[in-house]
Amino acid sequence: MAVSGWVANLARRLSQLDHIAGLDNLNNVEIWLGGLFFPEAYITATRQTVAHRKKWSLETLSMRLDIERVNDPTAFIVDGLVIEGATWSSDKLVLNNGEPVRLNPSQIRWVQSDDSNNENFDNLPVYLNGDRSDVLFTVDLPFESSAGSLVSMRAVCLTCGD
């Protein structure tokens, strides 16, 4: 990355932090995960907030990522997600030619774990950026039934954008 690109990225990160710092409540605020200096800490904080608010044990919580939905007032909104190797259509992953697709804002919810069998779901990694060196977390997302094992073989993933 050139110095000018690095400085522009830093300015964008600082702008987001300045905006967030002035808020009393982060519910319904779009957060660019890739713009946080420690996005893992933000994810942990959302989990702890829900556990405290609902008086649930941390060990019983599972993350749900609702792609391109922001209708839950208790959820945490993330922006800047990019899906690689697929697109999002009719509430499921549909394989594409590998071209990255920027997603609309999505929401993170924490729910109590269930051991239900999610047959047409695949566990996808969510990387910090496009170089895929830092996995932030994984999420279970539904996929088109015809995709089957191709979701894993094509290395479909989400990134937090640059």
UniProtKB/TrEMBL annotation:
PANTHER family for this protein: DYNEIN HEAVY CHAIN, DYNEIN HEAVY CHAIN, CYTOPLASMIC
Domain of life: Eukaryota
Entry coiled-coil feature ranges: none
Organism: Marasmius oreades
GO molecular function: dynein intermediate chain binding; dynein light intermediate chain binding
Domain Dynein heavy chain C-terminal intervals: 3-160
InterPro entries (alphabetical): DHC, Dynein_C, Dynein_C_barrel
Transmembrane domains' residue ranges: none
UniProt GO BP: microtubule-based movement
Any single Gene Ontology cellular-component annotation: dynein complex
Protein name in the entry: Dynein heavy chain C-terminal domain-containing protein
